[in-house]
Each structure stands twice: as structure tokens, then as C-alpha cells.
Design goal:
Elements lengths: L3 E8 L2 E10 L4 H13 L4 E12 L1 H16 L3 E5 L11 H8 L7 E3 L2 H6 L3
Parallel strand pairs: 2-3, 3-4, 4-5
Antiparallel strand pairs: 1-2
Helix pairs in contact: 1-2
């Protein structure tokens, strides 16, 4: 069975969604809903921490691209956490998938949450 857990936290102007598990056809709608809920709540600066995601398919990539489009349309910002070193059971899978599909360049990528929320601009 596919599983995913999402924790939400506030770091200054940033809303941080920390995702653990598998980001696929079954779980992607849940992530899409969390992004839409954040934007509907007036939170337009979003960090998605993917460091503990074990698997990501094209549905998961689609959610990330849609989140980028949504946030850009409302003047917001999206930053992804794709650490260079593996943490919390992740294995760098999402980074490899985004790179293989040629879409990694679309995203502002950081190694950890503190770096993402500290960067100005």
C-alpha cells in the first residue's frame, strides 16, 4: 500500500510541507490539496521538503510543476528541498527523477529547510 505523511510548519513568511513516503498516482492528490489549501489560506511562499520521499512517479512530478505554476500565478515562491546527502530514509530518488526528466532546472533547490527559508529573494 502506498503511504505518505505530510507535516506543515511555519518559518517566518514560509510554509514548509515536509513529505515522507511515496509521491505517486495515489498520494499526489493529497499533496496537491495541501498546496492549494496553503495558497487559499494566503500563504504564497512555500517550501516542499522532499528529502524523505522514497519514490516519485510522473504524477508526483506533475504535482510539483503544478504547484510551481500556481505559486507563480499569485506572485508566490516555491522552493524544494533535495539534499545532497541522504537523510531520514530518503535516497535522492526525487532529485534523480527531476534531473532525468529535465525539469529540475525549473525549481529553486536547497539542501535543507534552514537554507531555503534563510535565502532572500
Amino acid at each position: 500500500m502506498t503511504t505518505i505523511e505530510v507535516d506543515e510548519d511555519e518559518c517566518g513568511p514560509w510554509t514548509v510541507l515536509s513529505i515522507r513516503g511515496e509521491l505517486d498516482l495515489v498520494t499526489s492528490p493529497r499533496i496537491r490539496r495541501r498546496v492549494h489549501d496553503a495558497v487559499a489560506g494566503g500563504r504564497h511562499d512555500l517550501v516542499i521538503d522532499l528529502s524523505a520521499v522514497r519514490f516519485c512517479d510522473s504524477s508526483g512530478v506533475g504535482v510539483l510543476i503544478a504547484a510551481r505554476r500556481l505559486l507563480r500565478s499569485c506572485g508566490g515562491r516555491l522552493r524544494l528541498i533535495l539534499p545532497e546527502t541522504v537523510v531520514e530514509g530518503g535516497d535522492g530518488h526525487v532529485d534523480r527523477v527531476l534531473s532525468a526528466l529535465g525539469v529540475r532546472r525549473l525549481f529553486e533547490v536547497y539542501g535543507d529547510v534552514p537554507a531555503a527559508v534563510a535565502e532572500v529573494g
